[in-house]
Specification:
about 350 residues; 7-stranded mixed barrel; 10 strands; about 20% strand; globular
Length: about 350
């Protein structure tokens, strides 16, 4: 059973504010002396590298080691280690509790849990761990709070009475553990700043989470979390005029938008999965059209017809202030593209702002 305390619908979300949170445990921090000894580096060097999280490339560069050495030093089990060249991810779980070292899956399995909040109860809610680096590194330092996701109608097929069960309007919520953020506020503040700058970004709220895993000890504190709405769930309903457009979560080589890099595999859909890729293909084509050099004015008009350039530039400028490093510009990930049928443009949506 999962019990949640915190603010419901913070930052303009749904409903009134919830009850005040109870005490919670701070996330454990790495033992610098032990980690420095394992890596044969000074504590000052290790501390400086940890400050670069979540930019793993910058961390290993600062430590002058391979990323596998960092994962090894943190004690991440084999089941949590990705194949060579793959993103890090978590292993599938059988229930609520700390993960074991089972075979790695692309997405962990869903387990049914009961959720309580503000005197109400939600039954047969889907629970699974989520995340890549934050999950594996949190496990490595033996953190109690691991990032997870809730899906309130994941098991509705087996429980028809739960059809379209929602948590104050939300089908799914992600719960980030604020790993590597001493302030515990970065994810929420960054999203608030993006929206204030006119960039669509997920609503967030703070929650203290308690879990009863059935061992007779009752509810135990898991930690202080930031709940985040899913872009393909409620964000497009509340921040766009319509929610029937294609939504993509780009990753891989095609997501760089380099010349001749476009592949459909780099643009997995989160909505309208059976539709064509004409909108994102058009963006790639326009970016590399000959008119970019021969007729810049015409090229700009063509680009602005298929891509919301103004909001992208707003994101670019704001992200400079927010200082999220592991996204487009250094890594082709952590953003969505939504085809807004009202404007006919693809709109840039930042993601994973921890």
């Amino acid at each position: 059973m999962v019990e949640i305390y915190g603010e419901r619908g913070a930052g303009g979300g749904r409903g009134n504010g919830g009850p005040g949170g109870r005490g919670y445990g701070r996330l454990p921090q790495p033992n610098l002396a032990d980690l420095a000894a394992l890596l044969d580096r000074s504590e000052e060097t290790v501390q400086a590298a940890i400050a670069l999280f979540p930019d793993i490339n910058a961390m290993v560069e600062a430590l002058e080691i391979e990323d596998d050495q960092l994962i090894e030093a943190l004690g991440v089990p084999e089941g949590f280690r990705p194949p060579a060249g793959a993103d890090r991810g978590g292993a599938g779980q059988d229930g609520v509790g700390r993960p074991g070292g089972g075979p790695r899956q692309r997405n962990p399995i869903w387990a049914p849990v009961t959720v309580e909040f503000a005197g109400q109860t939600w039954w047969q809610v889907g629970f699974r761990y989520k995340g890549n680096t934050a999950l594996s590194m949190s496990w490595g330092i033996n953190a109690t709070a691991l990032p997870f996701k809730l899906d309130f109608d994941e098991f509705e097929d087996a429980n028809p009475e739960l059809d379209n069960q929602r948590f104050y309007g939300f089908k799914q919520l992600g719960f980030g553990n604020n790993f590597g953020d001493p302030s515990l506020q970065r994810e929420k503040v960054a999203a608030d700043v993006f929206r204030a700058a006119g960039v669509p970004a997920a609503e967030t709220a703070f929650y203290a989470v308690y879990v009863d895993n059935g061992n007779g000890e009752g509810f135990q504190p898991w930690g202080f979390y930031t709940a985040v709405e899913l872009p393909d769930d409620t964000l497009i309903e509340t921040q766009f005029a319509d929610d029937d457009g294609n939504m993509y979560k780009p990753s891989g080589g095609g997501a760089t938008f380099a010349a001749d890099s476009f592949t459909e595999e780099s643009f997995p859909k989160r909505t309208n999965r059976q539709s064509e890729f004409a909108d994102v293909q058009a963006l790639s084509d326009v970016l590399h059209a000959e008119t970019r050099l021969s007729n810049p004015v015409a090229w700009r008009e063509e680009l602005e017809a298929v891509f919301d350039v103004e909001r992208f530039l707003r994101w670019l400028a704001t992200n400079r202030f927010v200082q999220k490093r592991d996204t487009y510009g250094t890594m082709a990930k952590d953003f969505y593209l939504y085809a807004d049928s009202a404007s006919g443009q693809l709109v840039w949506i930042p993601w994973d702002n921890n």
